[in-house]
Every structure is written in C-alpha cells, then in structure tokens.
C-alpha cells in the first residue's frame, strides 16, 4: 500500500543559444525529476514549439543572447502570448539596465552565469510557488526595482 501523495513533476521549457553550461544544467534538472517539455535554440523557435504543446510548461528558462537585436521584441511576444509561463533568465549580464528591462517584461527570476544546478532548482521551486528568485549579484537591483514599482 502506498502512502502519501505523489508529487506532480514541474514542467520546464529551455531556450538555450548553444550554451554548454545550460545544456548541462538541463540534463541535471532532468535527472532530478523535472520534466523538460521542449528545448530550442532561439526564442522565436521556442514560441513556435510552445504553440504546438498540449500543455504549457510551468517554467521557461531562457539563456539570453543580448547581442541579438530582436531578443527583447521576442521576449515581449513570448510574455504576451504565454502570460502563465514563469520566466527565468540565464545571462552573464548583470547591469542595472539589463535586469530592469527583463523585470519590466515580467521575468520572475534571473540567474547569472556561474549559477549551478542547485541555484536553478531553488529558482524553479520559488517561481512555481509565486515567488521571485535572483542571483546574489543582481538581488539588490531587483529589490530596488520592486521597491520603486
């Protein structure tokens, strides 16, 4: 006889612009029991893949390429079309402008390059429970943003 209740798997989408670190984290999260519903290399492809899914992932982790001139337009499109999907950024950019731009779009989390699988797991757990999660290096920027807004 089984006791207790089965915990529902948290579902994820990964948009990764060929970052091998993000690939390793994705594989590690799969091994921890998270279900990866899709992986894509570009935001536009990710939006297309999302529209083909029967059920949306709870969280989408996006390795951001700020050198792509269309990235912010695509992120706004993603947020508008799928407002229920929690967004976590993964980036090397820790400037106030970069962080605040993503918070304005509606990102719930922001992890800096160097974050490990435990950081990703914590971020996913927090944002799926209606919280926000930020790497230590940008937490002050996020705190100021939410204090002012």
Number of structural domains = 1
Provide the CATH superfamily. Response regulator
Order of helices and strands: EHEHEHEHEHEH
CATH class: Alpha Beta
Q: Helicity level, as a percent range?
A: 40-55%
Largest sheet: spatial strand order: 2-1-3-4-5-6
How does the helix and strand content classify structurally? alpha/beta
Rg from C-alpha positions? Answer: 15 Å
| Biggest pleated sheet | 6 strands, parallel
Average the pLDDT over all residues and give the rounded result: 89
Q: List the uncertain runs.
A: 1-6
The CATH topology turns out to be Rossmann fold
What percent strand?
A: 15-25%
CATH architecture descriptor text = 3-Layer(aba) Sandwich
Give the terminus-to-terminus CA distance: 51 Å
SS field, number of helical segments: 6
Give a written overview of the molecule.
The modification 4-aspartylphosphate is found at residue 63. Keywords: Phosphoprotein. It comes from Pseudopedobacter saltans (strain ATCC 51119 / DSM 12145 / JCM 21818 / CCUG 39354 / LMG 10337 / NBRC 100064 / NCIMB 13643). Residues 11-128 form the Response regulatory domain. This is Response regulator receiver protein. The protein is an alpha/beta fold. It has one domain (11-148): Response regulator (Rossmann fold, 3-Layer(aba) Sandwich). Helices cover 46% and strands 19% of the residues. The protein contains 6 helices and 6 strands, in the order βαβαβαβαβαβα. It has helices at 20-31, 43-52, 71-81, 96-105, 117-128, 136-148; strands at residues 11-15, 35-40, 59-63, 86-91, 109-112, 133-134. The chain has a 6-stranded parallel beta sheet, sandwiched between helices. Helix 4 links the parallel strand 4 (86-91) and strand 5. It is globular and about 40 Å long. It starts with 10 loop residues before the first strand and ends with a helix. 31% of the residues are buried. Mean pLDDT is 89; it is low at 1-6.
